[in-house]
UniProtKB/TrEMBL annotation:
The keyword Zinc applies. It comes from Mycobacterium yunnanensis. One of its GO terms (molecular function) is hydrolase activity. InterPro entries: MBL_superfamily_lactonases, Metallo-B-lactamas, RibonucZ/Hydroxyglut_hydro. The keyword Phosphoprotein does not apply. This is N-acyl homoserine lactonase family protein.
């Protein structure tokens, strides 16, 4: 079984030290904040939701600081631009619950949030500023999974535990009409990360991060296309008209 379509969405931009993505690298890097719409015969899925309302600014106004989120880049507006009602999303799969991946959860209010139990539990007790509880604990229905999980039971959207960046990080293996695609989330920020097996300058667990990166690299070696989590060069090949504001 394959999904009907996989559509990448640009839901904001971040400008951070490059070492945030690959340890030891100098300077800064402006990176996309992705989300993905997955059309399946049994319901629409959103993988990650981008940045949320607390970072939103009116479209066309100047960027201030390291977060760039124009109103029309919020995931609900991205969906509407495709003719998709945000309330029609059946499942929202969060790779993890940091603000650039779960901040937009509130924009798809009727979706059931699918997250690893380890991530859900950790996010509620962590003092990491990247977690903002009101953004992910919104009162939406939550499906807590543990380990590998076949979302529709037909092999088309398979969730893969890829801990390391956070305790309960997960990636997704999506079977599309043109082949398997791996949505890495922050388990692999840049193509260079996988090519050189290099970690960011911060992780919850370096050893687990390295193992997860190897898992994803093995899928690439087996022929899957890898969609790297925050790679601006790769992203331009998916969304050639997209650019930071």
């Amino acid at each position: 079984m394959t999904v009907d379509a996989l559509v990448p969405l640009t839901c904001g931009w971040l400008t951070l030290p490059t070492a945030f993505f690959i340890v030891g690298e100098p300077d800064e890097l402006t990176v996309p904040v992705p989300a993905y719409l997955i059309d399946h015969p049994n319901g629409r899925v959103l993988f990650d939701a981008g940045l949320g309302p607390r970072f939103r600014r009116p479209t066309g106004t100047p960027v201030e600081g390291w977060v760039d989120l124009e109103s029309d880049a919020c995931v609900d507006e991205r969906l509407r631009a495709l003719g998709v009602d945000p309330t029609s999303i059946r499942y929202l799969v969060n790779s993890h619950l940091h603000s650039d991946h779960a901040g937009g959860n509130t924009f798809v209010p009727d979706a059931t949030v699918v997250v690893q139990r380890a991530e859900w539990d950790f996010a509620h007790v962590s003092d990491d500023f990247a977690y903002h509880t009101p953004e992910f604990d919104t009162g939406q229905d939550v499906m807590l999974v543990e380990g590998h999980f076949d979302l529709f039971g037909d092999g088309s959207v398979r969730l893969i535990p890829t801990p390391g960046h956070t305790p309960g990080h997960q990636s997704a293996l999506v079977r599309t009409p043109t082949g398997d695609v791996v949505l890495t989330g922050d388990a692999c920020n840049l193509k260079q990360s996988m090519d050189e097996m290099r970690l960011p300058d911060h992780a919850h667990d370096d050893a687990l991060y390295r193992q997860s990166l190897q898992t994803l690299r093995s899928l690439r070696d087996q022929g899957a296309s890898v969609f790297y989590g925050h790679d601006p060069v790769f992203w331009a090949t998916l969304n050639p008209s997209s650019e930071a504001g």
